[in-house]
Amino acid sequence: MTSRESLEYYLSLAYSVTLDPDPEGGYVAHIKDLSGCFTQGEILEETMANIQEARELWIETAYEMGDRIPLPNNTIEYSGKLLLRMPKSLHRDLAHKAEVEAVSLNQYISSVLSRSVS
Asked: How many domains does the chain have?
């Protein structure tokens, strides 16, 4: 049997929480790194308290069962580079718009994407 960290170690790890509004009211929260770890609440404070309790229970149960406990994947680094395939007609239209705006194609696409996700 291989040795592993203590339960306290796993409980001290900081996992990213995703919060989504529930169409019926309140919020739903989940921790992507801990499969099946999710909860809900009526207000943000309640939802965050609930997800922390769910995280602790998830880790404690996995630890007791001898299951692998994934480490948080909070260290994703993005290069800022993206290879994207698109139809030739879209490429042409974007290049034309960039020319009209007097900016590079990369700068134009970046600004369009920034506006769409804001």
From this structure: 2
Q: What are phi and psi of 29, to 5 degrees?
A: -125, 145
Residue 37 buriedness (CB in 10 A; 0-12 / 13-18 / 19+): buried
One domain for residues 46 and 14: yes
Q: Which residues span the domain enclosing 110?
A: 88-117
The answer to whether the CB of 24 falls within 8 A of the CB of 40 is no
CB 28 within 8 A of CB 19: yes
Q: What is the pLDDT of residues 25-64, one digit of tens each?
A: 999 999 999 999 999 999 999 999 999 999 999 999 999 9
